[in-house]
Each structure stands twice: as structure tokens, then as C-alpha cells.
Amino acid sequence: MSFASLGLNAQLVQAINECGYTEPTPIQRQAIPLVLKGGDLLAGAQTGTGKTAGFGLPMLQRLSETKASALANGRAPVRALVLTPTRELAAQVEENLRAYAKHTDLRTLAMFGGVSINPQMKALGRKVDVVVATPGRLLDHVSQRSIDLSRVEMLVLDEADRMLDMGFIRDIRRILALLPKKRQNLLFSATFSNEIKALAEDLLHQPEHIEVAVRNATAETISQRFYGVDKNRKRALLSYLIGHHNWRQVLVFTRTKHGANRLAMQLDKDGLPAMAIHGDKSQGARTRALSQFKDGQLRVLVATDIAARGIDISELPHVVNYELPHVAEDYVHRIGRTGRAGSTGEALSLICHEEKPLLKAIEKLIKQSAELEILSGFEPGPEEVQPATKPPANNRGRGNGGGRGRAPTAANNKAPRSNKPNRPQRHGRHDG
Ligand code: AMP
Fold it and tell me: Are 173 and 230 members of one domain?
């Protein structure tokens, strides 16, 4: 199937060819014709499925087919608004839209915090058709009156579940109140909590529903491996895996900012060029780390879930879960950084005894069982009785296997529980 057969015009098809896309992805096949028809859309899809082009291409086509109504002050109005949870995602979505709009006269602009507001204000003085923004910075512009949202014809909430998780619901509602009532709304979300359903109900009018199964994304293009290892041997195992397999590029997930910093420093000391990205890093540092990683100067990028959200590195071959996430869905988001849009990838998870309940929740979600592999030299010691772990800070109301106050069970349920720890471990500092 070709992009042209989905109803896209010659300018867009040319841009898509220049991006190197030969065939639409499943989400694009479903979303493009529906969005072109002008109705609202509720789409279940995560990053990596090609969803940006899924909403972006038909959005650009609709905008180019109609003329904007001029504002009283003579400025061309902002006609489409895409809201994203993170700065990285805003930058990336805008970059993609700019590439798709290359042969049209439509102009795009990314607006996110952590960088000076002035260049964004200056850019808003020129013609901007599509704004891709994080909610906070957009509201800064609203309060400075540098943007007028009263002519927005299309709204996209990208990764809506993550925006709600990050506490943006009030900002989103404030933004919605500034938009004209008549507009086309597209909501993309990887998961559907009751909160998302409530938002969709308020926002969307007789939406079409489409869904790209998460399981396909994990099963078909990503090979998943799970290594059993003691917590205090994880770093050694990670260095070994990187060195032994000579990986040139690996994205490593930790649960906390502190853990990300510490691991990046240690890997760097091990001679593996590594940097951490997380919410406490300045935007400059995040952008620098990401571009060095993309350029191949940096071998290891260590990231927390939120910072890594939406990172798109084409053909990222390896993702490592240094620690499992507390929320099983985040596992799917994390490993979705590899094996994207057709290429294959490998996702490795390092699992210590106390993470086994989290692993169980993940197995349930991905509907696959995880075989724990043990590497010689990294054999875990017998399972110890663990102190109670802190409950997930943010479990989105889903049962994730618990783990609180209960001794973890081994994945194969055979490991004897020992009251004689062979290697005393301190659990005083909790990284969760
Ligand atoms: P997204 O889910 O929008 O973040 O897209 C994931 C990656 O897939 C991006 O690098 C896109 O440039 C790429 N991509 C999107 N659509 C296609 C396609 N039809 N063929 C090949 N790559 C694509």
C-alpha cells in the first residue's frame, strides 16, 4: 500500500519519500484516511509506531487545503496545536512535522520550557501554522500574550496518558478553554486509564477509535532477554555486556535521577563514554547528551522514564532495563525505543530478586513468560528475605503485582528462601 493511496497529496508524498518511508505503518494506514475526513480520533498507539506521521501528514494536508482566516492584527493565526508531555518529544514531533511540511508553505514551531522564551516569542511574530508545545511553556506564552489560540482548527494530545501522569491535566483544561469550540481533536495514548477515558469523553465528539496493539510492537521486532543477577553486580554485568558484545549504542533505564547519574559516572570510569538525562538536567545538557548519543560520540545514554519518553533514535539496537519500572506499562514504553518502524532490536533486563514481582506484572501485561538467564560469573546468590519495598509512587491504579511487604518469589518459584544471606546487602537507601 502506498501513501498516495491513503489520500495524501503529491507534496506530502514527496516529503515522505525523502524521509525514506516506503510504506505506511499500521497506525498510519488507519489514522490517515480518518483524520483526512475531518472527524475526531481516539488512538491507542505508543511512540515508535509512526504515530507522528499518522496525525501529522493528514493534519498538514487539511491545513494546506484550506486558507487561514486572517486575524484582526494582520498576523497569520496558529491553526494547529500539538501538546506533548516532554520537551524532547515536542522537539522531535516538530522536527518530523517540519520534514513532512517541507514542500508546503506551512510553518511549524516547537515551544518548550528549559530554554529562553525570547526566540520563541520572536518566532511567533512570523507566520506559524502549527505549534508543538509542552503545556507549561504554552501557558507562559498565553500569559505573555505572545500567542493567540482562538483560531486553532486542530488539536492533538500526544501521549495523553503521560501528560496526565505528569500532572498536566489542569494545564490541559486551561488550554482547552482558550480554543475555539469547533475544531478537530485527536487524542493519542498508549494506555487507557479511567482518567484518560474521562478526558476523551469531554474532548472528543463521536470519535473514531483505532488501536495498534502494544503486543505486536514488543513481540515482532524486539527480542527480549532477562538476566537474573544480584543487585550489587548489575553494573559489572552491564559493563560486561556492553564490552563483550561491543555494543556501540545502548540506552539504559534506571528508576531514579540519582541512580542515572551514579550509573553514568561509574560507566564512564569503566571506560564506557556515558551520560545521564533526566528531569533535573538543564535543557541544554539534555539536548547535548542526546545529540552526542545520536552522533555516536556517546556510547551509553542513561535515562529515567520521563526523560526518555519519546526519544527517537533511528535503529537504536539495544535497550537495557538496569532496573525494572514500577509500572508495567513503562516496560513496554522503554523497550519501544528499539526495534522501531521495521528495524529489529534487543531489550535486556537485569533482574534482581526483589524485582521479581515487577517482572510478573510485566509478563502478565505482555502476555509472555520471561525466562531468566544466568551468565556465568554473575550467578545471583540465594534469595534473601528483603525488607518491605516502597510502594510505586505512581501505579496509575493498576495492579502491578504488588511486592509490598511480601518476600519476592522467584520467577520459577523454586529458589529456596534463605535466612542466611551469603552477601550482606544494605537496603538503607531506596532508589524508588
Ligand atoms: P513515531 O512513532 O512517530 O515516533 O515514529 C517512529 C519512527 O519511525 C520515526 O523515526 C519515524 O521517522 C519513523 N517512521 C514513521 N513512519 C514510518 C514509515 N512509514 N516507514 C519508516 N519509518 C517510519
Answer: no
